[in-house]
Amino acid sequence: MRVDVAVVILAGGEGRRIGGGKPLRRLAGERLVDRALRTARSWSDLVAVAVRDPAQVEWVNAPVITDERDIGGPLAGLVAALRFAGRSERQLVLTIPADTPFLPSNLLARLHAEIGDRSCALASSGGQIHPVCGLWRTNAVQRLPAYLAGGRRSLKAFAALVGFSEVEWPCEPVDPFFNINTTDEMIEAERRAGD
After folding, report:
1. 3-class SS at 5?
2. Nearest C-alpha neighbor of 179 from the set 49, 58, 42, 10
3. CB atoms within 10 A of CB 12
4. Would you call 12 helix, strand, or coil by DSSP?
5. Helix spans in 90-182 (H)
6. How wide is the angle at C-alpha 185 spanned by C-alphas 155 and 37, nearest 5°?
């Protein structure tokens, strides 16, 4: 499904638990960031990668945007994504993480169907919300200054502030939002990629 949406891959985490350089790690011979780009391009013609430091990604065939410096965590990537999509005159931006290699192919379609009049729709599975897998209205950026002024930095809390729909996916036979943070999880991802 294609709608008038930008897709931004959030790749700004340091990946300390896996020894750093997570977006460049290879899964089934393909870098995680390249796998995410391939998935993102199935949904949109406007795709970018958000990083804390451009050195986090090398030779990426997509625009690289920089996380907001004064904000920590994934919220910094969301702010960069909202601004990128807004500058590109897209009313919606889908954010996906670089370290979640088995995203469902219907992610955009289901989030788009459920966003309604809310500011965002967030994926969930197994009773857990995955706020980095979300479809956001770009005008949500207008609510950020007040939110940040209160010292808050949680994506979930920001989504609650602006209003969100939760869209649930089944975890069986596997959780499509499995993400890689450790060497053991990378081994598990290789096993799953081979199935």
Report:
1. strand
2. 10
3. 26
4. coil
5. 107-115, 144-149, 155-162
6. 60
- Return d(Cα 134, Cα 165) in angstroms, integer: 10
Give me the tens of pLDDT residue by residue for the chain, a chain 195 residues long.
556 899 999 987 766 777 667 887 888 999 999 999 999 999 999 999 998 887 777 778 899 998 888 888 889 999 999 999 999 999 999 999 999 999 999 999 999 999 999 999 999 999 999 999 999 999 999 999 889 888 888 999 999 999 999 999 999 888 999 999 898 998 999 999 877
- 97, 133 in Cβ contact below 8 A? yes
Based on DSSP, count helices (H) and strands (E) in the chain, helices before strands: 6, 9
DSSP 34: H
Angular region, 59: left φ>0, alpha ψ -120 to 50, beta rest? left
| Contact indicator for 15, 22 with CB cutoff of 8 Å | yes
- CA of residue 44 relative to chain centroid, distance: 14
pTM of the model: 0.93
Question: How many whole angstroms separate alpha carbon 173 and alpha carbon 116?
Answer: 29
Angle, CA of 114, 115 and 121, to the nearest 5°: 95
Distance CA 106, CA 63 (A): 24
